[in-house]
Structures are given as C-alpha cells and as structure tokens.
Protein 1
Amino acid sequence: GESVGLHLPTLSVQEGDNSIINCAYSNSASDYFIWYKQESGKGPQFIIDIRSNMDKRQGQRVTVLLNKTVKHLSLQIAATQPGDSAVYFCAENIGGFQKLVFGTGTRLLVSP
Amino acid sequence: KAGVTQTPRYLIKTRGQQVTLSCSPISGHRSVSWYQQTPGQGLQFLFEYFSETQRNKGNFPGRFSGRQFSNSRSEMNVSTLELGDSALYLCASSLVPGRDVEQYFGPGTRLTVT
C-alpha cells in the first residue's frame, strides 16, 4: 500500500545512471542527518548518516554530502538500479533526543 | 534477528472510537519511538520511550498517548478518533536512546477512520 503523498517531487532516471536527491534543512542547530529509503508498504529503511562535523560520507553505492553554509544535504546513488525505486527522505536530529524531523521526501523512479 | 513488529497492520475505525496500536522492538532494543505519516504532513514524531518513561513528545493533542512495558514493547492509544487521524503509524526501535543511534522502523499500522 502507499505510504507517502501523491505530490512528491519525482526524479526519473534510467538504470545505470547516477541519481542525486537533494534536501534542505531549516535548523542550523541540527547536528546529525540521516537518509532513509521507503518502499511501498514498508517502513523507512536506514541508508546512510552523517554528522555535522563532516562534509561527505560514502557507503556502498551511496554518498551523502552536507553543506552547512546553505543547510543542504544531498544523496548520490551510483549506478542506479530498478530496486532503488522508492521514496527517499532526509531526516535531521535536533536536541540530543531521538526525535527525527523528516523532509517531505523525493520519489525516485528507475526505468530499466 | 526479527525486525520491528507492529500489530495490527491494518485497522478501520469509526470517528469517536479509540484505538490501541502495538509495537514490539527488535530483541535487545530498549528505546521505542512513534511517528505518524500522512500525505499532507509527511512523517511526524509522536513520542519516544525508554525504560518505560516517555523522554520526548511531539506536537500532538492529548488524545494521543503511549506507554512502554518492562519488556520494551510499546503501545500507543488514540482516543476520540477524528477523520484526520487516518495515517500510517510507524514505530522505530533502537538499542538505546540517542541522537546518533540508528533507528529501525517497523512496517507500520495503516489506520483508516471513517
């Protein structure tokens, strides 16, 4: 079943392309950021995180970039595959508790 | 290791009724958080529990409540349901509370209020 809104920004790419998903955050006090992937009918799944003392972090096929000056995060997915099709959310953590503030999400559609 | 379990997966209630949703965290995880996901508002934090204590609460009316048991299982309750409470309710667990501790989400409970 659907789990997100109908009017999400959508990024359509071809299989094998590199994808870049962007996110702006609002609170300059945020010091921990996470990217989640949510497939239809499932809960968000952790992809990668980054702390505010870093500008870049790499995982398997994914890279997160953090620009604190303009309060911007991006998620780069290399060699995008059809299985990457999902909604991607950035989330920020504020205040030392576990509360996450989520962005609105971007739908990634990957065509074979 | 089994993931976060939420029951029931789907629920239909009538306006004015109350509902209780259940969350079983990953074995060994002691911290549980709840989120509401709607098309209009996206994912919003409801509450966070650790050691049977609510550590943090989101900006929701008092009709939304929760608790955590000694085995770390958690329940949330919504009383006097409104149409706008229709949403996917997600539970997330982590080993301990903390801002940089990975949270694992369950599949959610889809609540429809008619």
Protein 2
Amino acid sequence: AQSVAQPEDQVNVAEGNPLTVKCTYSVSGNPYLFWYVQYPNRGLQFLLKYITGDNLVKGSYGFEAEFNKSQTSFHLKKPSALVSDSALYFCAVRGLGGATNKLIFGTGTLLAVQP
Amino acid sequence: EAEVAQSPRYKITEKSQAVAFWCDPISGHATLYWYRQILGQGPELLVQFQDESVVDDSQLPKDRFSAERLKGVDSTLKIQPAELGDSAMYLCASSFLQGSGELFFGEGSRLTVL
C-alpha cells in the first residue's frame, strides 16, 4: 500500500536560514509525489510535484524539493526562510486506487520561522 | 483568480442532528473531492466524483454520510446523525484532470459536534 511519512512534527528555523522539511514514501512502481501548504484556518495549496525527469523540482514561493529514489525521500527545501513561510506542510503520494489515483497525505510538519 | 467555494465556514451542532456542507468547484473542473481533516492529521479522502458519478467512496461512512453532485457541478456532503467523532475540517477540492494530483482546495468547513 502507498504511504508517506513525515518524521518531524515541527521544524524550527531562523529567518534567512535554509530550511528542510522531510518526507519519505512507500509506493509500488514509479512515485508521483506532491507538497502542499496549509495556512491557519485555510485549505491546502499546491506547492510542487514530481512526476518524472529532473530530481530537483521547483515550485511556488521559492520552494523546491529533491527526489531521491535510493532513499525513497522527497524533502522540501528553501534556501532562505521567511517568517511568512510559517505554516503546516503536507507531503502526499498518489495512490493506485483503481480509477481514482487518490492522494494519500502525510500527517504534516509545522514549520515555524523565527524572526 | 478562480476559487473553490465552501459553506458554511463554521458549523456547531449537537450530536444526533443533521448537518450539510456545500461546495462549488472551479468552473470546468470535472473532478471533485471531499476530504476530512481531523486536528493534527493529514486530509483523508471521503468521496471523489468524476462529473456526477462517484468513483471512490471507500472511506465514506455510508451509514451516516452521504454525498451528491447531481448536475456534475456543485456538491453537498451530509451527515445524519452527527456524532462527537465527526468534529473535523471538511475540505472540498477540485481538479481539471482526474489523477493529476494537483488539487485546488476550498477554505474548508469546520464542524464541531457537542
């Protein structure tokens, strides 16, 4: 069965420093991987996705993610964190559920960027 | 910019009462999803529609939950009777292509069952 794991409940980083939010996955076949962000009391927003091709995927708001097949990881990164990046981040994998190919989300990582 | 509309944003109800949530997806998006997000957890798919047809409701508690998308546009999710454990955020999302994984979410409807 497809699954994702986000090992850190919270990540703290100082503004201006690089940030990494970790994600590992388990999937049969080629993975389709995604990152979403959720601000307080809001719905989720799509950040980026990996389907195939270059292992470094660039997305919205200066975020990028690195796909590593040997480590089954898809970590989210940003070279310089902003206070406004503080939010809940979800990694997701596309499951193989018949016609649906539904998204399976991790439990989320709270990113706190201190000024 | 087009958005997914949901109402109500907040709903407080007593257990055993009926509650309904409404969603209007982005125009042209044939695929519509209802997710439930319990505090501290990731969203879990309840039901997925392709146009007016249900393509996945395997995680929908059908004894008390129902969902419809009669004309293939807006959708309603109903709970009857509500239970304490139903307290959660109910998120509606839509996508242009089924299976693309790029979903557009509404702001959600937060349900509190007392």
